[in-house]
C-alpha cells in the first residue's frame, strides 16, 4: 500500500434493484395475523442418515481436532494470494454422532478501507496485497499449537498458519435437582489463524470452532496507524501525539466474509426472522410476535433490532426431526453508507464461481456483471445461496493506538440451531431430558 493515492476502480453506483430488498422476499406460508410464524412442527420421521464425510485433502492440508467433551472439527485449508486463508469442507462431529457438513467453503471476501476525507480508498484483499503479506509467526504467537508452513507464490515458505486451542470458560453449568452436585464443563475452542500485513496494518484473521458447534469468524486489526495519514486538518481526524496537531485521518475497515454452506451436504435455503414487540394495554404485559420470511430470491439484507437470518439444510434433520440450520449472529458493526456494497449487512446471492470478492472482484465475470456483491443481487432465485457478511468498524484513532496499535476485533458467529437434538455436550445422566420435562410429582 505504498501508493497512498491508489484508488480502487470505481464502478457506476447503480441503485440497488428494489426487487432485491426485503419487501419482495417471498413470505413463507403465513399464518393468520398475530400468530407466531415459527417453524412448523415436523412430522415424525426416523433419524436422517448421515452420509459419511470423507477427507478430500491430503494430510498436510487437513485440520482435525477433537475437543474436550468429544466433539471433533474437521476441515481442509488452502491459501490464496488474494483471499489469504481459505477453509473448505468444514465438518462438525458431535460427541457420539456422525459428522455434519457445516461449510463447503469459508474465507474473507474483502477488507475495504475508505478514508473519511475521500482522499483514499483501498480494497486490501484484491487491491493492496493482503495475501502476499502473510507473516511468519513466532512459536509464542501460537501458544500450545502447531505452526504450519504455507507456500506463498512469489514470496516463498511462510510459517504462517497457527492451529491451536484456547480456553473459553464455562460451556454450561446447572445445579443438580437435589443435593449439592453441579453439572458443569469447561470448554476449549479450536482456533485457526493467520496474520497478514497490508501497509502499516496487520490483520489477524481468526476462525474459532467450539465444541458445541459454534463457529466464530473475526478479524483483528493491529500494527500501526498509517504514518502518512496524520494530515486531517478538516475536522475528519483525531490528534495523536502532543497538542492539537498530527491529526490521524479517520477511516473505516469494512470486512467481508464469503460463506458457502451446503449444510449436511445438500441444498440450503435462507430464512429471515423478525420480532415485533407490542407494549401492554391496561394491566397487561408486552407481547412479541415473531414472523418468518423465506428468502427465496437474492437479497441485500439490513440488520435490524430483533431481526436474524438462518441457513437451513434442505435435507438434513437432527434426531428430533428438525431441519438443521446455522444462525448468522453478527457482532457490532458500523454500516458504512458510502458504497452500494458497504451499505447492507448481509447479502444472499446465487452461487456463481466468478463472484469471489465483495468489491473490486477479480473473478472473471461477464463484462457487464458488475464488480461488487451489491450488483449480483438482481432478483435471481436462490437455489444455491452464497452468504456474504459485512462487518464495519469506523476507526477514529486515539492516543492509545500507538504503539503498536491494540488489536481491535470485528466479526460474527455462526450458531447451530437444531444441528443436534440436544446440547451436544449434554452429560450422559441428563441425556433423557429432551423435550418438556414431566410435571408429575
Ligand atoms: Cu484503522
Automatic annotation (TrEMBL):
Pfam families: Cu_amine_oxid. The modification 2',4',5'-topaquinone is found at residue 201. Keywords: Copper, Metal-binding, Oxidoreductase, Signal, TPQ. This is Amine oxidase. Contains 1 topaquinone per subunit. GO terms for molecular function: copper ion binding; primary methylamine oxidase activity; quinone binding. Residues 29-51 are annotated as: Disordered. Belongs to the copper/topaquinone oxidase family. Residues 69-424 form the Copper amine oxidase catalytic domain. Gene3D superfamilies: Copper amine oxidase, catalytic domain. InterPro entries: Cu_amine_oxidase, Cu_amine_oxidase_C, Cu_amine_oxidase_C_sf. Topaquinone (TPQ) is generated by copper-dependent autoxidation of a specific tyrosyl residue. Its EC number is 1.4.3.-. It comes from Streptomyces filamentosus. SUPFAM superfamilies: Amine oxidase catalytic domain (SSF49998). Residues 1-27 form the signal peptide. GO terms for biological process: amine metabolic process. Its cofactor is Cu cation.
Amino acid at each position: 500500500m505504498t501508493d497512498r493515492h491508489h484508488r480502487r476502480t470505481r464502478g457506476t453506483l447503480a441503485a440497488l434493484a428494489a426487487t432485491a430488498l426485503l419487501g419482495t422476499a417471498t413470505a413463507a406460508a403465513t399464518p393468520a395475523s398475530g400468530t407466531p410464524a415459527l417453524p412448523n412442527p415436523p412430522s415424525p420421521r426416523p433419524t436422517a442418515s448421515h452420509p459419511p464425510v470423507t477427507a478430500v485433502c491430503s494430510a498436510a492440508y487437513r485440520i482435525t481436532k477433537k475437543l474436550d467433551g468429544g466433539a471433533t472439527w474437521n476441515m481442509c485449508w488452502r491459501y490464496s494470494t488474494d483471499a489469504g486463508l481459505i477453509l473448505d469442507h468444514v465438518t462438525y462431529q458431535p460427541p457420539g454422532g456422525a459428522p455434519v457438513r457445516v461449510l463447503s467453503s469459508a474465507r474473507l471476501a474483502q477488507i475495504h478501507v475508505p478514508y473519511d476525507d475521500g482522499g483514499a480508498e483501498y480494497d486490501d484483499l484484491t487491491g493492496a496485497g493482503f495475501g502476499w503479506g502473510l507473516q511468519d509467526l513466532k512459536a509464542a504467537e501460537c501458544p500450545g499449537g502447531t505452526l504450519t508452513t504455507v507456500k506463498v507464490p512469489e514470496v516463498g515458505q511462510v510459517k504462517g498458519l497457527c492451529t491451536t486451542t484456547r480456553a473459553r470458560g464455562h460451556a454450561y453449568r446447572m445445579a443438580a435437582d437435589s443435593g449439592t452436585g453441579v453439572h458443569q464443563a469447561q470448554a476449549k475452542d479450536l482456533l485457526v489463524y493467520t496474520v497478514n500485513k497490508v501497509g502499516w496494518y496487520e490483520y489477524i484473521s481468526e476462525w474459532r470452532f467450539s465444541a458445541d458447534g459454534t463457529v466464530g469468524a473475526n478479524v483483528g486489526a493491529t500494527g500501526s496507524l498509517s504514518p502518512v495519514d496524520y494530515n486531517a486538518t478538516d475536522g475528519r481526524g483525531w490528534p495523536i501525539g502532543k497538542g492539537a496537531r498530527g491529526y490521524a485521518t479517520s477511516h473505516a475497515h469494512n470486512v467481508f466474509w464469503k460463506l458457502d454452506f451446503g449444510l449436511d451436504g445438500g441444498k440450503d435455503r435462507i430464512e429471515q426472522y423478525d420480532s415485533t414487540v407490542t407494549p401492554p394495554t391496561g394491566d397487561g404485559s408486552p407481547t412479541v410476535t415473531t414472523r418468518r420470511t423465506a428468502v427465496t430470491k437474492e437479497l441485500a439484507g439490513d440488520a435490524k433490532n430483533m431481526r436474524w437470518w438462518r441457513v437451513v439444510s434442505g435435507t438434513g434433520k437432527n434426531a428430533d426431526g428438525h431441519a438443521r440450520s446455522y444462525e448468522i449472529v453478527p457482532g457490532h458493526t458500523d454500516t458504512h453508507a458510502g458504497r452500494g456494497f458497504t451499505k447492507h449487512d448481509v447479502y444472499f446471492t446465487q452461487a456463481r464461481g466468478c463472484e469471489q470478492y465483495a468489491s473490486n472482484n477479480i473473478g472473471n465475470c461477464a463484462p457487464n456483471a458488475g464488480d461488487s456483491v451489491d450488483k449480483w443481487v438482481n432478483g435471481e432465485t436462490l437455489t444455491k445461496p452464497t452468504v456474504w457478511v459485512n462487518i464495519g468498524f469506523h476507526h477514529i484513532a486515539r492516543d492509545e493506538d500507538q504503539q503498536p496499535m491494540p488489536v481491535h476485533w470485528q466479526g460474527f458467529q455462526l450458531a447451530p440451531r437444531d444441528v443436534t437434538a440436544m446440547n451436544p455436550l449434554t452429560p450422559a445422566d441428563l441425556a433423557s431430558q429432551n423435550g418438556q420435562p414431566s410435571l408429575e410429582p
